[in-house]
């Protein structure tokens, strides 16, 4: 029920979710934080030209994680996933840019690191599915829902990126 309410909220209060204003949710999982990959992952998104509009280090509650992974609740690994994700700090981020959802998913690589190409985050840093370092929204709609779960509106910044004219025509 809460997931439905948040989805409706995200739908009705979306602002500028297209073009260069598209936003996605990215989370560096506890294994990525423990392995000190945060800076490298942020660097990759910055070098790509995306704009960071939200960032926080959190210890996610089981309730938040159950809402976040609601669509996986019937899968046998759900309980273990929630336990694992609540076991340590998570870096929650919102990135903005042209087709950022699709591009970020490509930058992450496949869910199974064995299927991920070198040069992707999972292809470069991961071995097992259960420790695949990072989460990224899989659609604009998922991004809206996930951002509204992890961030309050006042935690997202709108700011002028002076490099924008060097990235977009």
What are the main properties of this structure?
alpha+beta; 9 helices; globular; magnesium; ATP-binding
Uncertain stretches of 5 or more adjacent residues: 8-15
What structural class results from the helix and strand content? alpha+beta
Q: First CA to last CA: what distance?
A: 42 Å
What is the share of helical residues? 40-55%
Mean pLDDT score: 91
Q: Can you count the beta strands?
A: 4
Major β-sheet profile: 4 strands, antiparallel
Strand order of the largest sheet: 2-3-1-4
The run of helices and strands is HEHHEHHEHHEHH
Radius of gyration: 15 Å
Shape call: globular
The portion of residues forming beta strands comes to: 5-15%
What is the overall number of helices?
9
Subcellular location: Cell projection, Lamellipodium; Cell projection, Ruffle; Cytoplasm; Nucleus
Protein name: Nucleoside diphosphate kinase
Function: Major role in the synthesis of nucleoside triphosphates other than ATP.
Domain Nucleoside diphosphate kinase-like: 21-158
What topology does this entry show?
Blueprint: H1 2-12, E1 23-28, H2 30-34, H3 38-48, E2 51-58, H4 62-68, H5 78-85, E3 90-96, H6 100-108, H7 121-125, E4 134-136, H8 140-150, H9 164-167
Antiparallel strand pairs: 1-3, 1-4, 2-3
Helix pairs in contact: 1-8
């Amino acid at each position: 029920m809460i997931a439905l309410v948040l989805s409706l909220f995200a739908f009705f209060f979306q602002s500028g979710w297209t073009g260069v204003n598209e936003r996605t949710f990215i989370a560096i999982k506890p294994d990525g934080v423990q392995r000190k990959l945060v800076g490298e992952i942020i660097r990759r998104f910055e070098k790509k030209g995306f704009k960071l509009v939200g960032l926080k280090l959190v210890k996610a509650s089981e309730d938040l994680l159950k809402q976040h992974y609601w669509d996986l609740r019937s899968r046998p690994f759900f309980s273990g996933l929630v336990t694992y994700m609540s076991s340590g700090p998570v870096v929650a981020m919102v990135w903005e840019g042209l087709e950022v959802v699709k591009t970020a998913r490509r930058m992450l690589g496949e869910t199974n690191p064995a299927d991920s190409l070198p040069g992707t985050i999972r292809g470069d840093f991961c071995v097992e599915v259960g420790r695949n370092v990072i989460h990224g929204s899989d659609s604009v709609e998922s991004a809206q829902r996930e951002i509204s779960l992890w961030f309050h509106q006042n935690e997202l910044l709108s700011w002028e990126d002076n490099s924008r004219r060097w990235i977009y025509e």
